[in-house]
Amino acid sequence: MGQRKKKYQSGEGSKYVTRQAALRMLQLTLKNFRSLCILKGIYPREPHNRKKAQRGTPGIKILYNKKDIQFLLHEPIIWKLRDIKIFARKSSRARALRDFKALRRYIDNHPVLTLDHIVKERYPTFIDAIRDLDDCLTLCFLFSSFPSLKHVPRDQSALCRRLTVEFMHAVIVSKALRKVFVSIKGYYFQAEIKGQTVTWIVPHHFSFEPQARADVDFKIMSTFVEFYTVVLGFVNFRLYHSLNLYYPPKFPNYSDDIEKDLADEEVYVAERIAALNVSLIRTKEEDQEEEDNVVDDFPDSTDDPEKLEKIKLELERVRALKTLFQGLKFYLNREVPREPLVFIIRCFGGEVSWDRLLFVGATYEEDDKSITHQIIDRPSLSTCIPHRYYIQPQWVFDSVNARQRLPIETYMIGAILPPHLSPFVDENRDQYIPPEEKLFRDPSLQLEKPFTEDGDDDVLSDVDLGEEETLDKTEETVLDEKDKEYITSESDDEETEVKENLEREISSKEKAREEKVFEGCLGDIRIFSRTLFPPPDIRVC
Fold first, then answer.
1. How many helices (H) and strands (E) does the chain have?
2. Which of residues 26, 53, 75 is at a domain's end?
3. What is the annotated localization of this protein (predicted)?
4. Is the residue at 152 inside a domain?
5. Both 435 and 481 in a single domain?
6. Which among 371, 300, 280 has a CA at the least distance from the CA of 331?
7. Residue 450 forms part of a structural domain
8. Do 126 and 261 reside in the same domain of the chain?
């Protein structure tokens, strides 16, 4: 006779452990346990049967997979966390005893937590790291805008700023940006890196507003950032070497010697790199034309020629998109957000500059005659320079999403801007699509002109009049046939009276129909006159 199994020793009760049991197994504090779970990517689980998983205990408890906790038992970071705990105890004791010699020795031998092996464990290949880069970039861009806080050290914010700027330079060199969008949350960017789509959000540059501790847990977010900075550093290193760039990036030294003497060399280089306006030094020059030709080589034999044509067409569109702003020189006014626009313009081959007092790295002044577009966000200007377009910032974003340079008439100073549509919406969705979006997706869908060529608004076109005449004739023929059948069925004595009644009825119907047609024509004339001839509220310099 076999041994009888005890309750909760198999099945749902043996798969999960509570958080308190996990702390006892790992001999860690709750703070260190949370950090370890974030770094290793372990999260609580929801069982199918909570009563069995909790072994009959009432209430709702946090449950973890037992195999995950056993996996953490062999993690080397646990020993490092214990060393940090011992270091804190020894240093506090030396500080209390005023033994500064021992305190200095402890500080010099401070244990450092390395996460390289965790990154390699969670992302075995480079493509795996790029697939999980969305949250990494979003959080790093967010922390790069933070000041020094209690749970966010200044070094961490500076590191996030440096890594995000390096990543933007890699996107600029590879011309990998595909879609942009501006919302109340910030700037949405989407790039295509190594065949993978990466989307991230950059917050607006507003002043920092302190948050309550109950609303935002900066300690948990800081632990995520600690891991994401290591991941982003590895990704930047690999991207820079694949693009034949030095890492850390090197800045070409061709500026004035006077500016060098005013600042430290490291600060000088970091500021110029953060300007995003100067090309970085390459390890070797490469022929871009040869790379483009290699991309377009396809095998002649394929099972689906239509799919092959679509791929070729998409590659041609992407190639044209990479040189969208090539040959254009932009100048940014003070009120325009500098960094997002510089990043977008540089990704598509354009040149850009700004006021030297606004930020370092300006390459030309506002009075440069070679400037083609000046981006401004004001209702009017006191003076305008000829042979230059004064446009609003939305033109840059909409042109990138449309993959072509849009007409600038609707984006000039004081113009009523068209709706800024999101490029992340599925075009084949089975939902209502506004007419503005249809017109933006397909510019050929224009309203047909209902007027004559000579421009008289009170006269309808010959086509419309011909259609109305044919409708009247068909209605009259139907009425005549019905009238004939009705007349033949009546007696001869009532024939004259019936004819008179029918003539009155036909005349009244014709008058009512003519009035409706006239009112409808007037309504169409008013509507089309508004769409084709808007009020002149656009001021052009």
1. 20, 9
2. 75
3. Nucleus, Nucleolus; Nucleus, Nucleoplasm
4. yes
5. no
6. 371
7. no
8. yes
Can you give 438-465 as a three-state secondary structure string?
HHHHCCCCCCCCCECCCCCCCCECHHHH
In a domain, 289, yes or no: no
Q: How many domains does the chain have?
A: 5
Nearest to 402 by CA among 413, 418, 416, 386: 418
CB distance 78 to 26 below 8 Å: yes
The one-character DSSP state at 205 is -
Residue 220 lies in a domain: yes
Closest CA to 51 of 60, 39, 38: 60
Residues 86 and 156 in one domain: no
Q: Are residues 90 and 134 in the same domain?
A: no
Residues 348 and 435 in one domain: yes
Q: Which domain holds residue 386?
A: 326-441
389 and 515 housed in the same domain: no
H or E segment and range at residue 349: none
Residue 166 and residue 54 share a domain? no
How far apart are the C-alpha atoms of 246 and 244, rounded to whole Å? 7
Q: Along the 541 residues of the chain, how does pLDDT read in single tens digits?
A: 567 777 777 777 788 999 999 999 999 999 999 999 999 999 999 888 888 888 888 888 899 999 999 999 999 999 998 899 999 999 999 999 999 999 999 999 999 889 999 999 999 999 999 999 999 999 999 999 988 777 788 889 999 999 999 999 999 999 999 999 999 999 999 999 999 999 999 999 887 777 766 677 888 899 999 999 999 999 999 999 999 999 988 877 655 554 545 556 677 777 778 888 888 888 876 655 445 544 455 555 556 787 888 888 888 888 889 999 999 999 999 999 999 999 999 999 999 999 888 888 888 898 888 999 999 998 888 888 888 999 999 999 999 998 989 999 989 988 889 889 888 887 676 777 777 777 766 666 654 443 344 444 444 444 444 444 554 555 555 445 545 554 455 455 566 666 677 677 666 766 666 555 445 444 443 443 444 334 444 333 3
The backbone torsions φ and ψ at residue 180, rounded to the nearest 5 degrees and listed phi first, read -140, 155
CA of residue 94 relative to chain centroid, distance: 52
Count of Cβ atoms closer than 10 Å to residue 58 Cβ: 7
pTM: 0.75
Calpha distance 334→346 (Å, rounded): 19
Nearest CA to 187 out of 200, 202, 176, 173 is that of: 202
